[in-house]
Amino acid sequence: MLSWLEIDSLRFRKNVEGFRGILAPGVLVMVVVKANAYGHGLRELATIAAEVGDWLGVNSSDEALALTTSGIRKPIAILGHSEVDQAETIVREGYRQVVYRSDVAQALSKAAQRLSRPARIHLKIETGTNRQGLSLSELDGFLKLVRNLPGLEIEGVYTHFANIEDTLDPSFAHLQLERFKKATSLMEAGGIRPAQVHAAASSGALLYPETAFTMIRLGIGAYGIWPSRETQLAARERGRQITLSPVLSWKTRVVQVKQVAPGDYVGYGLTYQASRTMRVGVLPIGYYDGYDRQLSNAGRVLVRSQFAPVVGRIAMNMTMIDVTDIPAENDDEVVLIGRQGGQEIRAEELSEKSGTIAYEFLSRINPLISRVIKT
């Protein structure tokens, strides 16, 4: 293989169990595997995620079907919007669908009646993020609608925090939490007591135990990435003892080593000019593969346990590195993310240099690249 990802299943398991260790007894863990398991490989991780999680969370019915075809039988929550023509599939397969639109609720009700089985839904409450969800002013009317639709079962209610990682000023997170509690109180006053109440993702679970309710949605933390440096520091200060280890390593190989004379250029746009006689290694990866173009003349890789800087512009399928002071040869293994010898390159480093966050950097790794599970 010219480029591949290695997925450490033991680390994945330990990360999830680490979160369980800081939760109150009985709180469930939904492992979120949307976006190709945050770039790690949905199909490859599906079975492991189902073994360590009580629930699985996805964004779409397509992702849910991929889990089902892998033999997964754990509850699967679709956290993104589904079209009304997908209602029958959702009900037939027993998926839990987020609902905040009347047409989706009605479609699920009709499908439930046709199939003679319940449509289990989770109401999304808008508390301040202003993405999908029902505002407090809309909730009462929507509940009246849903209660009159046969076959619907309000199994869950949830919200999502906008700024819970701001450890210096938690006021907005507290405001959202109070709004959410008001929503659940309104539901309870109407005789609706969902079995699953969830608000916390990785950051909430780490910093605010009161946001766990009956279940947490564990995303980036399961993959060994801290949501932010601030979250990591605050968790330690608050005694939330947990160790997270990155699950993913990304590797490739040197496909050519060539001499470059002083004054010659490397790559498109003439952005790098050799100041000395150089040895340049060519790597068969580029921005199509998810190695961000912002890493041009800024990134670094590991070759023979030494750091080699990226030189020139990253192309669609090729990247060049400076191996002048490294005895690199054709077919040498190169680490883009991960460890080699005593050195390490983390996803956080590359995402910062790319002007983004680890979530985006990882989820944009090309899904066609082979994922290899390491046990």
List keywords for this structure.
375 residues; alpha/beta; TIM Barrel; Lyase, Ornithine Decarboxylase, Chain A, domain 1; 12 helices; 20 strands; 25% strand; elongated
Map the helices and strands.
Layout: E1 3-8, H1 9-20, E2 28-32, H2 34-38, H3 42-52, E3 55-58, H4 61-69, E4 76-78, H5 87-93, E5 96-99, H6 102-115, E6 119-124, H7 136-147, E7 152-158, H8 171-189, E8 196-198, H9 202-207, E9 215-218, H10 229-237, E10 248-253, E11 256-260, E12 265-266, E13 272-273, E14 278-283, E15 300-303, E16 306-311, E17 319-322, E18 333-340, E19 343-345, H11 347-353, H12 358-363, E20 370-374
Helix pairs in contact: 1-3, 5-6, 7-8
Distance between the termini: 19 Å
For the record, the CATH class of the largest domain is Alpha Beta
pLDDT average, as an integer? 97
Evaluate the radius of gyration: 24 Å
Helix content: 25-40%
Into which percentage range does the β-strand content fall? Answer: 15-25%
Which architecture of the largest domain would the CATH scheme give at its second level? Alpha-Beta Barrel
The rough form would be described as: elongated
- By CATH's scheme, which homologous superfamily of the largest domain applies? Alanine racemase
Structural class comes to alpha/beta
Quick one: biggest sheet?
A: 10 strands, mixed
Give the number of helices: 12
Stated plainly, the CATH topology of the largest domain is called TIM Barrel
Spans with pLDDT under 50 lasting ≥5 residues?
none
| Count of all domains | 2
- E-strand count: 20
